[in-house]
Amino acid sequence: MSETPVYTRPETLTDRPMAYCPGCGHGIAQTLLAGIIDELKIRERIVGVAPVGCAVETYNYLDIDMSEAAHGRAPAVATGIKRARPDLVVFGYQGDGDLASIGLAEIMHAANRGENYTTIFINNTIYGMTGGQMAPTTLPRQKTQTTPLGRDPETTGHPMRMCEIMATLDSPCLIARTATDSVANIRKTRALMLKAFRYQMEGRGFSFIEILSACPTYWRLSPKDSMDYIGQTLVPVFPCRIFRDRGAES
Amino acid sequence: MSERVLMNGNEAVGEGAIRGGCDCYFGYPITPQNELTAYMAVHMPRHERVFVQAESEVAAINMVYGAAGAGARAMTSSSSPGVSLKQEGMSYIAGAGLPMVIVNVQRGGPGLGNIDPAQGDYFQAVKGGGHGDYRLLVLAPASVQEMHDFTAEAFDLADRYRNPVMILADGRLGQMMEPLTLRTREPERVEKTWALTGKRGRAQNIVRSYFSVEGVLEKNNLALQEKYRRIAEAETRADCYRMDDAELALVAYGTCARLAKAVARACRADGLRVGVLRPVTLWPWPTEILRSHLDRLKQVLVVEMSAGQMVEDVRLAVEGAVPVHFHGRMGGGVPSVTGIRAKADEIMGRISR
Ligand SMILES: Cc1ncc(C[n+]2csc(CCOP(=O)(O)OP(=O)(O)O)c2C)c(N)n1
Fold first, then answer.
1. ipTM, interface predicted TM-score of the complex
2. Measured between CB atoms, does B232 come within 8 Å of chain A?
3. Residue B115 and residue B80: Cα distance in Å, rounded?
4. In chain B, which segments carry CATH 3.40.50.970?
5. Which class does domain B239-352 fall in?
6. A84 to chain B nearest CA, in Å?
7. Would the pTM of this model clear 0.95, i.e. be above it?
């Protein structure tokens, strides 16, 4: 006997239409966030930090207290909020240019201090907001506005795997990479995000969830082909797995 | 209750911050302000307050931004090269209307410069530093006592106007020891209904400086400018020494103001009508206070540890009514009393001719 699940609109989600492009991964991740905030009943004590990038106006979609942060500085801003008010639940939401390029120092040191907040890292292998330039996560040979012939690893380096780099640090309690390219993976992503917030609320420290997300506009693919691209092309470079789970170890 | 102690200027800033109700301090080592970070490392935890050594000045200022956004009284400190790194954050803080306190114990520049006292960051402090149209309220202490008092008061000013306040000191003020009186003071508490405290029983609060809807950013700017007018009206301060009958005004702040006062005293002993106007707020600049003396003044001499930065504001204030001269040293050089006196004599020689 199977029951049909009924999905309702999360209360935390505002009814403003999202300004994201069709098929964009930000919409999926933020809808998941809204549902998790409802489920944990933390809407009255959560504060989010928005990045500079396509998700800067996340506060238009999540009806919670939020702060903007300068490009890449969300981890420092989240540190300030959480240190000032440890009773709040805090998350940083960052893109790959924001987190892995300009804000690399801030994310590594927030992680290394074990700051008790949650990072949602949207890896779409590109700078969306500025028109599709190369990011540190851009794949070899991927064409972008600033790698018109495709990314040449000889001169521009290889894609940076943030979970793997993060896992060299002792402090983080949860490090995982996931994707939102199928219903099953969206469910897995939700479970991991939920766990990250639970860990924070238990005081376990820094948690890091990397989400492989589609950018159909600057991948020059249809939304559907973008989903296939994630599984076929991104996942072999960025394996989806749990790199650390202190809760499961203990 | 008050207590008489001997401290250096950097420590006095630290104790002033604690007495001013500073909840969170975020710092990064740099000479000549390390005693301040060290003081906070010891004393903030003792008061069960937050101390974090950040990974950079960039991180430190953004931690301040986060803590201030969450409603805390937050502070950072640095010296010139580090303050340059904080400029991005200062612009965001000003744009978002966050109260905070930043201390610059200036050293020689440009570049890595040296660790000796200087006043070369005046333009950065007073004219902007970061991008966009914004102002810091800038206080210039000239003694260890003022390092303490101004820092404590800065938190009240910041909260009152939801504006960043800078203490612009220099390496000499930071390093020198003087006796001072520590006073218990009740911080002026304002309700921060705008702060990020969790959306409970109210609409969401957003700390932001990004306004993508047409016209909204201009409105935000106009509101900032209106606030700056209110600050200028209520908070402009200067300290005058024997300006009432002065024919020559020495205009100087911080360390140079102390030297100027010594020169003025010696000139007076020789029967010369010399006074000192010391701006206490560098922004807002005490333009009207200087103008109120223009009917008697014959000359103005500005003394700075720079190539002449504040002198531009003095010239704007007097609008050509009297000649404005300059004497200064740079790169860690401190003007001497004899050097300033020689310049003053030269100027007054011109008066008598
Ligand atoms: C200091 C600074 N440098 C550059 C920019 C321009 N900028 C805005 S968003 C962005 C990149 C965003 O890319 P990413 O973090 O990958 O997020 P996405 O837009 O793809 O979600 C850049 C470079 C800026 N706003 N500030």
1. 0.97
2. no
3. 9
4. 2-235
5. alpha beta
6. 5
7. yes
